[in-house]
Amino acid sequence: MDVSISAGPAFAMGTVAVPPGGSVRVEAGAMAMTRGDITVETSTQGGFFKGIRRALGGESFFVNDYHSATGGQVGVAATLPGDMVKVTLGSTPLMVQSGSWSASDPSVDVDSKWGGGKSFFSGEGLILLRCSGAGDLLLASYGAIIATELTAGETLTLDTGHVVAFDETVQYSVRKAGSWKSTLLGGEGLVTDFTGPGRVWMQTRSSLDLIEWIKRVNPQQRSNS
């Protein structure tokens, strides 16, 4: 995927150059601009029932495939302000926080995967997308993106709202940030320990924290409480 990222790291937009006869797959609602010979086809990648699984996992029923017969461009932007990064997939699938997947080559399979009962992901409303196959994908973040390479046995601990993506080779487990006192009074809830080998991407801001801040300062909510 030939992509140039501009206006980062605060308000990044990815512009994908679609070659003649080529295409790019984009998350529903993420397209900001098209230029040149571009047509769009909406589908439930992998068929109707796979689309339903994604919908039940908190994702859209549909993805949009942008095609070009003679060449064109597609601009992709995330909902929240932040950065973007292109990641090339190899033999190891990538687990992506659902709000961070913006676009990918059509050869990349994107499917939802619940965090499961052992994980805070489902409890926090965060869904993991499993991206596999050969090709590139475009990740978006709220805030800047920081990539970390973990060696075998090395551990990195992240707050739930700062997770962007990690290699499937990375193991993760969930625990409380501290004692019940720090959980209830210190503003720290559950955290995840990521253990290598593999790569982990984090974002410097948390959309969950933004939502909680909006709730606190929303006059309408205060008046209804």
TrEMBL record:
<dbReference type="InterPro" id="IPR036983">
    <property type="entry name" value="AIM24_sf"/>
</dbReference>
<dbReference type="Pfam" id="PF01987">
    <property type="entry name" value="AIM24"/>
</dbReference>
<dbReference type="InterPro" id="IPR016031">
    <property type="entry name" value="Trp_RNA-bd_attenuator-like_dom"/>
</dbReference>
<protein>
    <submittedName>
        <fullName>Uncharacterized protein (TIGR00266 family)</fullName>
    </submittedName>
</protein>
<dbReference type="InterPro" id="IPR002838">
    <property type="entry name" value="AIM24"/>
</dbReference>
